[in-house]
Structure formats: structure tokens, C-alpha cells
Amino acid sequence: xxxxxxxxxxxxxxxxxxxxxxxxxxxxxxxxxxxxxxxxxxxxxxxxxxxxxxxxxxxxxxxxxxxxxxxxxxxxxxxxxxxxxxxxxxxxxxxxxxxxxxxxxxxxxxxxxxxxxxxxxxxxxxxxxxxxxxxxxxxxxxxxxxxxxxxxxxxxxxxxxxxxxxxxxxxxxxxxxxxxxxxxxxxxxxxxxxxxxxxxxxxxxxxxxxxxxxxxxxxxxxxxxxxxxxxxxxxxxxxxxxxxxxxxxxxxxxxxxxxxxxxxxxxxxxxxxxxxxxxxxxxxxxxxxxxxxxxxxxxxxxxxxxxxxxx
Length: 311
Hints:
Blueprint: H1 3-11, E1 16-19, E2 23-30, E3 33-35, E4 40-42, E5 45-51, H2 60-69, H3 73-92, E6 97-99, E7 103-107, E8 113-117, E9 133-134, H4 140-153, H5 160-165, H6 168-215, E10 237-244, H7 247-259, E11 265-269, E12 275-282, H8 285-298, E13 304-307
Antiparallel strand pairs: 1-2, 2-5, 3-4, 4-9, 6-7, 7-8, 10-12, 10-13, 11-12
């Protein structure tokens, strides 16, 4: 029994997944962060922790296993108990328990459980498609200091003698202003002429079109009726193939998946503005999970299940 796979599935939707008589995996939402030393931006995520004090069976894990494996609830509980007994024996022997995409558990020197989470998978579905990125350091302050140093070495000043010798500049300025005003008046006159021409041309074109419409005779021949069988996908369980910032890439992904035999479609953009593409939508959770496992094995290991009621 792949216990870590079932736990990983549940961590997308629940904040606490308990393994009876062993402990519980907890998730806590963390906002986007920036590492000042490396200028790395990290998307919002769920941080996973482990609490060995929470061991009471809430039935969540057993019910999920029973639904997926189509077995009775009591049998699922017995399977979990058997696996827990094996996990505890590994811990007492000093071995490290590795839960794929979740973290590692080991006993310390005092006999207490230590948990080291892994960050290979972001369980916050709102952040799907967002990855970390690094931005270069802004160096504006460095350039400012260099400019100040140059000003100290090479001062720029205008002496009274130079100002007197450049008296002709004021006449050039007056001439420039006069040319600007004249040019503005000519430009305004030209724009008005163009606007008048466009209005006349548009009026003539409209009159010609009305005349042709009045003279035209339309002969509409009835075409045979065509019946199209369109299957509308419904359900609140959607297997997400990807999310794209550019909608054109979203359309390409839908076309590609349809050519592979999937009932792919777009389900709109999430709150981050990313356009989402799904392999298919399902009414039942069990059918959706079976299809998700098959897609992960054969087509896309990064596919995930979105539970959402679409408008």
C-alpha cells in the first residue's frame, strides 16, 4: 500500500492528515517570500510539518483508502495499522522513513521523532504554475555615487564672462519660440482639413452602400438540417494539465491534448490570471482519482486534481 501517495493526495485539500497511532501531517499557508541575499522570489506555498501528539483516528485517511481501493472501511483501518507497526519497527532500528514529496522522519538521540520536510511539491493549488525566479540586483546607488565623484573632480560652472559672450542665445530662443507657435498653428489647420475630408468620404461611402443594398436581391435557399452530438462536460472534479500566462499557449495545449485522445478544455483563469487547461472533468471523486493516477503514470506526472464548482 502506497501510504505516502494517499497522504500526498489529501494534503492538497486538507490541513491535517492523521495516521492513527503514529502522528499527523499538518500544512500551514505561507505568503510569497524574497531571499535578500540571492534576490530569489518564492511563490506562496503550504509548509508541511509533523506532530506525533495527534494520533487519534479521524477516519479521513481510512475513508479515502477505502474509496480508492474499493474495500471496506474496517479493512482499510487494518491495512493502516499494519503499515504503522512496520514504520515504528523501522524507526526503532534507527532507519529514516522517507515519505515521497512530503519529508523524512527519524528518531533523535532522545527517542523523539524529527521531521524534515521536502519542498519538491507545492500543495497550495492557488500557486500552481508559479515557480521561483531570480532578479538581478539594482545598481542605481552605485552609479549615483560614481556621478557624484566625477562632479567633485570636474566641476561644471558658467562664468559671467561666458554669459556675456553668449548674448546671441536669447535671440535664438525667441526665434525658436516663434517657429514653434507658427508650426503649431499650421499643424492644427492641417489636422482640421484631414478631419473634414474623412467626414465627407465616410458620408459618400454610406450613401453608396445604402443604394446598393436597396437594389440588391437576396435568394436564400434552405440547407438540409445538420444534427451535431455535443457532449458537455460537467462535474466539480477537474484534472489540471497546466496553467498559462498567455491564452494562445492555452489553446495550443488544448489542441495537443485533444489530438492525444483527451477531452481537454479551458476552464478559465484563476485569481493569478493564469489560464487553466484540464484533461477532463468528472462528477465523481473516485473516477477522477483513477483517471489522475493513470495520467500521472502515462502522460504527465505533474497533473493534479482541482475540486471546484465552475460557473
